[in-house]
Design a protein that fits this description.
The complex is a heterodimer of chains A (361) and B (282).
Chain A: E1 8-16, E2 26-35, E3 40-44, H1 51-59, E4 66-71, E5 74-75, E6 87-89, H2 101-111, H3 116-129, H4 145-157, E7 165-168, H5 176-193, E8 197-201, H6 204-210, E9 213-218, E10 221-226, H7 228-233, H8 238-243, E11 250-256, E12 261-264, E13 267-270, E14 282-287, E15 293-295, E16 302-312, E17 316-323, E18 326-333, E19 342-346, E20 353-356, E21 359-360
Parallel strand pairs in A: 3-8, 3-9, 6-7, 7-8
Antiparallel strand pairs in A: 1-2, 1-4, 4-5, 9-10, 11-12, 11-14, 12-13, 14-20, 15-19, 16-17, 16-19, 17-18, 20-21
Helix pairs in contact in A: 2-3, 2-4
Chain B: H1 2-31, H2 35-39, H3 55-61, H4 72-102, H5 112-124, H6 127-140, H7 147-171, H8 175-183, H9 188-199, H10 201-217, H11 220-224, H12 233-239, H13 247-273
Helix pairs in contact in B: 1-13, 3-13, 4-7, 4-10, 5-7, 7-10, 8-9, 10-13, 12-13
The chains are: A alpha+beta (361), B mainly alpha (282).
Chain lengths: 361, 282
């Protein structure tokens, strides 16, 4: 097998769709990033945050306004899409209607003049993985929407030598059961063939279960790159706190009262952050509802809340309470007895994140 | 209620069928009549009402020297001009339409839509406006009264139809299809003829059908731009008329004139009914 998989470097990339405008709006603000060979990445962010633009820049469908792309240290910014050896799968199935399923899957290999035997071998392998073997001779247009998407996916995976497979919310049209299995298949493919996979999604669960590295984007900006655990426990900005996790992170306006303490309303909360040079400044305190514990009685780092709602999710209970006009959510074990009316919640100092100007201190 | 509806439905369908088919049947019957059967009284059924004769048909292939009109040569001229002009129009029109659908053009205030409209405006203009320029143009390049000259003029007339239909068609082919082909390793030309074009066959057939129809039925330019060397079928059919209207040969020539269009319609209808047009996208 030809080893062509590559490390992908995005160096100082930025992009605007209206470059002639005197004040262009940027779909992507300048950033640099490296995608290591053979890893799984998820690009996560709300609609319109620049995820698709980033993929199109890597595949060459869009030329970045500024910056350079390198595959294994070789600049490819000016290389055309067809010469880049990238596979891309779009959100909605794109199939060649006039061809059979087999011809669809074989198309990328035929374009690149692989031998007949090789094509047969690869198509068979991919169709087995994707459960398409029994349809190989049917016309592609006769298949259902999710089968069509499998064909798109198959065309992306059929070449073993691609630099990366870029997927733009590829499983949107696929039913949940199959979605789960396919995600696992993709993981297996990645582990077996060491193909770099880049997966765009706005669904955090999809991103968390699929990727080793998650890239969170917001308004054309990369806000955090990291492991699922980092994103969950130490969101670098309040946006990541809001966006990742369900329910979103609890975030309260507060003031710094000492080197390690902040005040919410009149309650002092100790944190592990060093707040020496932020004294008396307005900051935000963030804590995941998962980390807030029920306390028997008032002690240090507890807040007193008035319980307003208890929701039973089966595996846990979600408490919603009010402290003054602040709303606090806390996830507790289902078995735990919940006292009525007022109760104390404990904020573990190591789980408290302090944000100044929306950024983690 | 539903019975009444069914009755009315079949009634109107039958009525419409008679309305459409009757003139053809009338022409078929008339083409086998002679002067006597046409002019004496209304007759319908051969052998019972009148004695059929092939005279009306014979005139069409007899040479003028023997008192005929010979529409065979104009017939083949028409086939040649229509097919050549349609084919070239479809090829050029499809390429132009693809470019207009996929690339952004800017020249001063002119944008893609303006260019498309420019093509269509050729058809909006009354043909008479174009007659003198075409006449001068063809006589300047020495193509007046020639098949090639007619082909050139017909391309100008037919290409807007092809562009118009194909731009609309390509606009409905998702851009991702081209992009996928590029990612799969095609260059832009291969993406066009290996992927986009096979997907557009229904559009090509519709565009082709319109080109053939409009090319075949044109009388005006065929009449103005030809004299003696070359004649096209519509001109020749009109020339059949004389002081005593030869209804029999006019009917026969009308029937042979529409025959190719009926065949085209028949083929396209088969294609349409197979659902190949509607299911082409998505």
């Amino acid at each position: 097998m030809e080893e062509q998989m590559a490390k992908i470097d995005l160096s100082n990339i930025s992009h605007t769709y209206n470059p002639l405008d005197p004040k262009p709006t940027y779909a992507l603000n300048p950033f640099s990033m490296t995608w290591e060979n053979g890893k799984r990445y998820a690009i996560l962010g709300p609609s319109g945050c620049g995820k698709t633009t980033m993929l199109n820049i890597v595949s060459g469908l869009v030329r970045p306004s500024k910056g350079e792309i390198l595959f294994d240290e070789t600049p490819v910014t000016d290389l055309k899409t067809e010469d880049r050896n990238i596979a891309q799968v779009f959100q909605f199935p794109v199939i060649y209607n006039t061809m059979t399923v087999y011809d669809n899957l074989a198309f990328p290999l035929r374009c690149r003049e692989f031998t007949k035997e090789k094509i047969e071998e690869r198509v068979k392998a991919v169709s087995d993985t994707l459960n398409l073997s029994s349809f190989l001779n049917s016309p592609a247009r006769k298949l259902t929407a999710d089968q069509k998407q499998l064909i798109s996916l198959g065309r992306g995976l059929v070449r073993e030598d691609v630099a990366a497979v870029l997927m733009d919310e590829p499983l949107t049209v696929i039913d949940p059961d199959l979605k789960f299995r396919l995600r696992r298949n993709l993981k297996e493919i990645n582990e077996q063939y060491k193909t770099t996979l880049v997966y765009v999604t706005h669904d955090q669960n999809e991103a968390m279960t699929f990727a080793e590295n998650i890239i969170v984007m917001d308004q054309g900006e990369i806000v955090q790159v990291g492991l699922p655990k980092d994103l969950f426990e130490k969101p670098k900005t309040t946006f990541v706190g809001y966006f990742i996790g369900s329910p979103a992170m609890n975030i309260f306006h507060s003031t710094v009262s000492s080197d390690h303490e902040v005040k919410i309303n009149d309650t002092t909360i100790k944190t592990n952050s060093n707040l020496g040079n932020l004294k008396d400044k307005n900051v935000k305190l963030g804590i995941r509802s998962e980390f807030i514990e029920l306390a028997e009685k008032e002690k240090s780092n507890t807040v007193k809340i008035k319980l307003t709602r208890v929701e039973d999710f089966g595996n846990f209970k979600l408490l919603t309470g009010k402290m003054g006009d602040l709303v606090i959510k806390s996830k507790v074990e289902r078995e735990k007895p919940i006292p009525d009316g007022e109760l104390n919640l404990y904020f573990p100092p190591e789980k408290c994140c302090v944000y100044s100007d929306e950024k983690l201190v | 209620m539903s019975k009444l509806y069914t009755f009315l439905k079949y009634f109107f369908i039958s009525f419409w069928t008679v309305f459409v088919v009757a003139p053809f049947l009338w022409a078929v019957s008339t083409s086998f009549k002679d002067f006597q059967s046409v002019n004496s009284k209304v007759t319908y059924i051969p052998w019972l009402d009148f004695e059929p004769t092939l005279e009306g048909w014979r005139v069409l292939i007899k040479s003028p020297a023997k008192g005929g009109v010979d529409i065979v040569e104009p017939y083949f001229n028409s086939i040649f001009v229509t097919c050549t002009a349609s084919l070239i129009s479809i090829v050029l029109g499809t390429l132009a339409a693809y470019a207009l659908s996929r690339f952004t053009f800017k020249a001063g205030f002119v944008r893609n839509n303006d260019i498309t409209f420019f093509f269509i405006s050729q058809r909006i203009m009354p043909p008479i406006v174009l007659s003198i320029p075409f006449f001068i143009f063809l006589s300047t390049i020495g193509l007046l009264d020639s098949l090639l000259g007619l082909v050139v003029v017909y391309i100008v007339l037919l290409m807007p139809i092809a562009v118009w239909i194909m731009v609309d068609f390509f606009n409905r082919v998702p851009k991702e299809l081209d992009e996928t082909a590029l990612i799969d390793g095609c260059n832009p030309y291969q993406a066009f003829y290996k992927v986009v074009l096979p997907n557009s066959i229904p559009g090509l057939i519709v565009a082709g059908m319109f080109c053939i129809i409009f090319g075949w039925i044109d009388f005006f330019f065929a009449f103005i731009l030809t004299f003696t060397e070359v004649q096209l079928l519509p001109v020749k059919v009109v020339a059949l008329n004389s002081s005593i209207t030869p209804w029999w040969s006019l009917s026969a020539s009308a029937l042979v004139s529409v025959a190719p269009l009926i065949i085209v319609a028949f083929i396209v209808e088969r294609y349409l009914s197979k659902g190949n047009l509607s299911g082409a996208l998505k």
